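Researcher: Structure for this, please.
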Amino acid sequence: MWTSQDLRRSFISFFKSHNHTHIPSSPIVPNDTSLLFTNSGMVQFKKIFLSTETNTFFNSLKRACSIQRCLRAGGKHNDLEDVGKDTYHHTYFEMLGNWSFNDYFKEKAIDLAYQYLVSLNIEMKNIYVTYYQGTDKIPTDHETKTLWLKYLPPERILPFEKENFWEMGDTGPCGPCTEIHYDRIGNRFVPELVNKDDPTVIEIWNIVFIEFERQNDNSLIILKNKSIDTGMGMERVLSILNNTFSNYMTDLFLPLFSVITEFSPINYIYKDSDCLEDVGCRVLADHGRTISVCIKEIRPSNEGRGYVLRRVIRRAIRYMKKMELKEGFLCELVRVASKITGVSISEEEMGVIMGEEVLFSRSLDKGLGVLEKVMESSKNKGGVISGSDIFLLYDTYGFPSDLTEIICKENNMVCDLKGFNDLFKEQREITRVRSKKCLTGRISTGVIEQLGGVIPTDDSFKYRCNGLRGSVLFTIENGLLIPYKETQEYDNENSCKETPCNQVLSKETINNNLIGLISDKTPFFSESGGQVSDIGKFYFMQKNSMKIDECVYADFRFLKKIFKEFEDTHKHIGELKIIDVQKYGSVVVHFGYLKGKLSEDVFMVYDGCRRECIRKNHSGTHLLNYFLRRVLFEEERNNLKEEIGFSKEEEKDSIDLKEGNNFNEKKDGKKADKKEQICGEIRNEEKILNNLNTIAFQMGSEVSEEKLRFDFSSLKNLTLENLKKVEFFVNSVINEELKVEKNTVKIENVGLETIRMKEEDYPGLVRKIEVKSKYGLISELCGGTHVDNTKEIGKFRILSEGSVSFSVRRIIAVTGESALERERKATEVLNLVREGKSVDTSILKELPLFERLEIENFIKENERIKLEERKKIVNFHIKNIQESDEEFIIYEVKCEDLEKSVILIAAGLVKNKKSGVVWGKNEKEIFCSFRCENAVEKTEIFLKECLNVKVGGKGRIANGKALLTDNWNLKKFNELKI
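Model: Predicted structure, token format:
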């Protein structure tokens, strides 16, 4: 029996023997915004085909081969809905491929394909091949047909049109292709089944001859450099080698069916048939593999790649419930699948899967009940489920629209998806308007499209200076993009005299609307990467009146002075107070309120004091990100070591773990797997660094003047010990006074040690921020503004850490003077509570986390002590009441916390079956508690001479309080005695 590993080795060995360089698989998530996932082997070579790969290892490649992990579960290539229905479609699969880059072409490519198939002992009598049958614009590929005639009879060489012409996209490299199809049954002649989705005649290899380039006008030009791009489905070939009619009857899937049998209440055994149970088994086996490879790079979410993963998980959960599989099945399925796919999954990642299962199971149970009622009521409406009903299920019960559609199809009902999509878009627009971006929401889609034709703004000065001369190009007013003209003027009361578009804007409109301005260059930082934009001023000058250098840099501490000197020495005719800066494509738009006149010449100055605070917080965020990952990674590794009894000797030992010499694999296979994983990580620094980049995914951030906010993925509460470690390490690096290096580098030269956003599409040149510390290299890709030396950060303090949503946690922290001031305040408050004094608890949330927790503990202890003292006082007074023989007791209390004490002591009256009033007063207030007949009436008489009287109670119990006055007199109490 052929194993998947046998086939992998065979393929790589064959093509390496023909001078091909073996290139490892690229990640499932590509560095390409046009693709959701890596869906073919050519993705990592795309830049070579587009001739945009320069000065890299790839650029020197002539021949290559690889085994690429691929995913087709969303976007243009989407096999999700086909999975399970047949035996040869998958969402996750491995593609065997070989490439030639301006080296060999058609003849050699066909020869190599034939030779490799023969080396596998695949019977060529069961093979059909196809070639491109031309159209009016592109000639027939006779050459390919002729080349195949060396190996196959003409009746097995078939022409097709669009099926045999491959294109990367609407434009770009393209060319004819030849496909190799295999007849699983054999010993027959059935050319009519080729390209007909027949499970017995399947495509196994596609060889593309890239020789044209599609232009914008749809014409084709012949490429100077011609290339070969091939792809062969490993799962299909493996099934052929094992003489089975199904991809699922190989070692890539069979272990997963064993898991299903184990968790099935009836021990169901997969039969590879078309019955509903076997369809479910195929879905689960396929999706288990997909989840195992995705969870390392993606987290389930409600958009983009995360939503595709969530759909796959939810589809698996639905089939799991349909087959009534036992609890814990999905996690075990993914664990076994990870061994097949060769992916190491952490406990945290397993926790994410488990959490998705718990949450969706609840939604599924609720949603199914509602959907059943909707379907029942819709039977009288022609079997159509309305868009509003689908949206209700989605919006209220979290029930996915695609799942609604599937269930409706199973019940022969139709979904109004257009109606649902209209409601969904409407809801999304409402959310967008309510979001923070409503500030710039005045820019219409049309204006944004117009900005695409505007000259890009040179914003490179944002790293170099805080004052800059420039020219005004456009304004944005009333949602219109207007080329600059010297005709617009606003007086000191903001009333408009004339506008470039000949529209008079009312006083109210100017007061309540932002003006957008586009200049040729800017020193302002536009909001991006979680960092807020700069604010500042634009000064509009008379033509040629500005006598100042183009680019000015000044210490932020002296900026106010520079502002004043500039305003005194340069007579500007207008100014724009900038409150927000946004970037649309390559154009920077400054939003602000205009006073006076516009002019072409402008001097731009951002608020450097504010920028300095932002720089400190942003650099602090990088240090936090690095040490959070480092601390959590070390904890996870140490926990695994402890769990499996990992010894120091084993850590140092260099024994080959492939044979399992250091432990008894038969005794505990799971522990053996974990031990192998840990040993491999310890010996392989690159792997450790790569793991560091997959722990605590950054889920969002905000860097502002006041604070920094960092969201990250984690299922566990962070321990105080770990948080203290993180804070300690950050401050240690600050105190080391290390240089912060900022370099622009090529993306291909960025190593694994550099932290980057998982789904970010980085350009060819990126900005890398690095700090070389005794703890390691702190490196991250970032376009934000940063300090030049860590000492400038001053201090880093964590204010809070907590959960934001399922599997997402948030840390809020401060740096610089803000951190030091909060430390000082915390020390003051701590000293007060240590002395047992009361403090305003509303200020605690602004204090550093660890001092706040200490203060809260002191407050709790002080409250406990006060409570004990109050109990003693209350018991003392109750004893005095017990000893009184008066018929109606009037008892005065003198102590702290009078209101509570009076009520507690008065309870002693009832307990001892006495009537009377317990009262007490301080300088401002009086409190009383009656226990007698007509208690409310007597309380009102008691407080009659007071102000702001408040009485509550009924029957024999009443409490009251009021503000004391000079008229209140104790002598009046005698009339209350019974």
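Researcher: Any notable elements?
Model: The longest strand covers residues 201-214. The domain at 445-602 is CATH 2.40.30.130 (Elongation Factor Tu (Ef-tu); domain 3).
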